[in-house]
């Protein structure tokens, strides 16, 4: 079910806070397939700890989910984000990356 507050949350996470561009890139990758933090860091050319921080923020806001344990944890977009993906795409199109 579409969340009327989703746009506000997405605007805050991707446009209103530092690191929003990197979070968009992470979501774009996770839309294609699941990744672990190390793989994301490598593909994005970012520090492992930076990616870990962004994943934590996205997870706390129910935009990504995870499966597995320890270093084998794979992250993927959440059902909540899948339902609200049009709002994500709209916000992404309005932000210059």
Please describe what this structure looks like.
- The chain is mostly helical and 97 residues long.
- The chain has one domain (6-94): Arc Repressor Mutant, subunit A (Orthogonal Bundle).
- It is 60% helix and 8% strand.
- It has six helices and two strands, in the order ααααββαα.
- Strands 1-2 form a two-stranded antiparallel sheet.
- α1 crosses α6 (85-94) and α3 packs across α4.
- The N and C termini lie far apart (29 Å).
- The relative contact order is 0.21.
Molecular shape: globular
Question: What's the oligomerization state?
Answer: single chain
CATH class: Mainly Alpha
Looking at CATH, which topology would you report? Arc Repressor Mutant, subunit A
Q: Which regions have little confidence, pLDDT < 50, spanning 5+ residues? A: none
What's the quick description here?
With 97 residues, the protein is mainly α. It has helices spanning 6-14, 20-32, 37-44, 48-60, 79-83, 85-94; strands spanning 64-67, 74-77.
